[in-house]
Design goal:
Helix content: 55-70%
Shape: elongated
Number of strands: 0
Order of helices and strands: HHHHHH
Distance between the termini: 32 Å
Strand content: under 5%
Largest sheet: none
Structural class: mainly alpha
């Protein structure tokens, strides 16, 4: 279980706090609907960023296994198997998009789609 949690990189979720900036600077914290939408956005971006981390680790597993530090990552070390990693990727991507869509928050869903598109392109092609 700890290998799965480390794969999600929850320590990186703090970066997703950028979605709170608009709420803070607009003084929108008194609007419950806006606070809810921003909260959903924060959770969706945490799920999306974890999905990207897992996808990246899955995609780079062979290179990571040969790296002196990255070889200890959950997939590269074999602590998380490939089927479990694939299932986690699907679940995270689905949840990151499904949450805002289920709440009727199309702008949030579109922002998540943009984030995922850019990061998938980076993982699969742009970084090489």
């Amino acid at each position: 279980m700890s290998a799965l949690i480390s794969l999600l990189r929850p320590q990186q979720w703090l970066k997703n706090g950028f979605v709170l900036i608009g709420l803070i600077f607009s003084h929108g914290w008194t609007d419950p609907a806006l606070v809810f939408a921003v909260g959903v956005g924060f959770v969706a971006f945490c799920l999306a960023s974890s999905a990207v981390y897992v996808l990246n680790d899955y995609h780079d597993r062979a290179a990571d296994a040969a790296h002196p530090k990255k070889r200890f990552r959950a997939i590269a070390s074999g602590r998380v198997g490939l089927p479990a990693a694939r299932a986690l990727i699907v679940a995270l991507f689905g949840s990151a998009l499904g949450l805002p869509l289920a709440c009727g928050l199309w702008p949030v869903a579109l922002a998540v789609v943009g984030y995922l598109t850019l990061n998938i392109a980076y993982t699969l092609s742009l970084k090489h």
